[in-house]
Amino acid sequence: MVLDDKTYFSIMIIIPLLVLLYLSVVWWKKKARKRFASEEMLQRLSPSKSVFKPLLKLLLLCIAIACIALALVNPKIGTKLETVKREGVDVVFAIDVSKSMLAEDVAPNRLEKAKRVVSEIINNLGSDRVGIIAYAGQAFPQLPITTDYGAARMFLQSMNTNMLSSQGTAISDAVEMAKTYYNDNEQTNRFLFIVSDGEDHEGNVALAVEKAVNEGIRVYTIGIGTAQGGPIPEKISGVTESYKKDNTGEVVITRLDENTLRNIASGGNGKYLLGNQTEKTLEAIKDILNKADKQEFESKQLADFKDQFQWFLAAAIFFLLLDIFVLERKTAWLQKLNLFNEKTS
């Protein structure tokens, strides 16, 4: 048996308070009656008043309150055990957060477009696991591999170009870090999606990709940006004040480097996809992942629980109605039986 919310048990504190209140009222009435008349006289004045009935009404009310508390707690009883298996692939996204991703040649800018594309891919995943890496001049683990898509979307939305101080496009570092995301004991199919404009890449990317392939990782690239490119805005409080310039004072134009991204994907046994075409990219990735062999990476035995609150709610209503219809005067047939040794006139 499991309980939804045990805090509702605190409602039952009303029961001892009611008992104290009842005893206080009984004591006060008894004291007041003594000033009015003797017990024998009071018995003659109200011969049908029961001593037992007020206690019974208090008991019924207390039981009703206890049943209401139990209904709110909502006990659940397991009816059967069910083994749930999770099968899927491991998908890691390495997302470029360098300053060039602020270019607005795709709306609203490259980084926001990349985040939207990755978010849509996550929304279309089945039972696959997902991880996220941010990289610029170096790689940073944003989210370890997980099945929590809600957490993945949250961490994804928090990514920005200020999260890493060193600038550049260290794709090789991102690939090296991605290798640490996969568990060697769980032989799942492994996919790495590099989301970038491909510009100003650093390090020996080909060697890093080759090592990744040797460890069973397929590397895909998703290009964000245009061949025509655009300037990199420098904003203050969301307002563009100027554009990034080189050492000669000329405005820097950043362009999508598709050749680099194609070469990385080719060396990684993967494929290059243009992220600007969101729907086409999503369909291609869904097709890739659907065709991949799914491996079991999690197996849990779960109990199927059913709510039981309705029984306690029905009992509470029953006892409340019973309390209403039970009067404080003696019942004629019970009075004749005199089960509680009540005095008769």
Commentary on this structure:
A six-stranded mixed beta sheet has the order 5-4-3-6-7-12, with helices on both faces. The chain has a three-stranded antiparallel beta sheet with strand order 1-2-13. It folds into two domains: 2-74 and 308-337, no CATH class; 85-299, von Willebrand factor, type A domain (Rossmann fold, 3-Layer(aba) Sandwich). Helix content is 41%, strand content 23%. The longest helix is centred in the first third of the chain and has 23 residues, at 14-36. The protein is an alpha/beta fold and 345 residues long. It is built from eleven helices and 13 strands. The mean pLDDT is 83. Helix 6 packs parallel to helix 7.
Can you describe this structure in just a few lines?
With 345 residues, this protein is α/β, with parallel strands linked by helices. The protein has helices at 14-36, 39-45, 52-73, 110-123, 149-157, 171-179, 205-214, 258-267, 278-291, 309-325, 332-337, and strands spanning 2-3, 75-88, 90-96, 129-135, 139-146, 190-196, 217-223, 230-231, 233-236, 239-243, 253-254, 272-274, 295-307.
Which descriptors would you attach to this protein?
single chain, 345 residues, alpha/beta, Rossmann fold, 6-stranded mixed sheet, 3-stranded antiparallel sheet, 11 helices, 13 strands, 23% strand
Q: Choose one word for the global shape.
A: elongated
The total of helices stands at: 11
Mean pLDDT: 83
Tell me what the CATH architecture of the largest domain is: 3-Layer(aba) Sandwich
How large, in whole angstroms, is the Cα Rg?
Answer: 36 Å
| CATH hierarchy class name of the largest domain | Alpha Beta
Strand content: 15-25%
The CATH superfamily of the largest domain is von Willebrand factor, type A domain
Number of domains: 2
Summarize the main sheet: 6 strands, mixed
Strand/helix succession: EHHHEEHEEHHEHEEEEEHEHEHH
